[in-house]
Specification:
Helices cover 36% and strands 41% of the residues. It has a seven-stranded antiparallel beta sheet, with helices on both faces. By secondary structure, the chain is of the alpha+beta class. 17% of the residues are buried. The longest helix is centred in the N-terminal third of the chain and has 45 residues.
């Protein structure tokens, strides 16, 4: 009986170790894609790659009891050609969002390795607090969370916000109504 329990416990620990290593590899893949996306975003800002563009949207207003607010969205996208319809279309690969609520400044990033797959990385910062979510659909799918300080946004809302921002871009740039 003790041998059976020991064997089951060892197998369970081995599975946990293997899953941890797989998560590390998936997170490393997303980090590598993030570094490439940041380099491509820099190319877009400099105008050195004609296949990569960016769009900036700014909203400034005064909210009652809160004061002046400003939100800036930056969409970095790639221009693709769809041979079946014979048209160019645009796919975002990185979205950044800066905004303030009263005297608090927030910064967010959304990374799409393949925007058809959905969000792959979410980052949010406010002061010393940071929240990071990694999502992947390969290897059976999964996610990983890193929180420094207080969590700023839960993972389900981050996914929903990313989907909304991606859909807004698609409707505006590709006239996909």
């Amino acid at each position: 009986m003790r041998t059976t329990i020991s064997t089951i416990a060892m197998l369970f620990m081995l599975c946990l170790t293997t899953m941890g290593q797989t998560h590390q590899a998936d997170v490393a893949k997303i980090r590598k894609a993030y570094a490439a996306a940041k380099a491509d975003a820099d190319k877009a800002l400099k105008g050195t790659d004609p296949g990569i563009g960016y769009m900036v949207m700014t909203n400034t207003h005064v909210a009652p009891a809160i004061g002046p607010q400003k939100e800036t969205l930056q969409y970095f996208y790639r221009c693709k050609y769809d041979e079946t319809v014979g048209m160019y279309y645009y796919k975002p690969f990185l979205i950044t969002r800066k905004y303030n609520v009263a005297a608090r400044d927030f910064y967010e990033e959304f990374l799409y390795i393949d925007s058809d797959e959905g969000l792959n990385f979410f980052f949010m910062k406010n002061g010393e607090n940071e929240t990071r979510y990694y999502y992947w659909g390969w290897n059976g799918g999964g996610s990983h969370e890193v929180v420094k300080g207080e969590p700023l946004m839960d993972n389900v809302f981050a996914l929903r916000l990313a989907t909304d921002l991606n859909e807004a871009f698609t409707r505006l740039m590709n006239r996909d109504y």
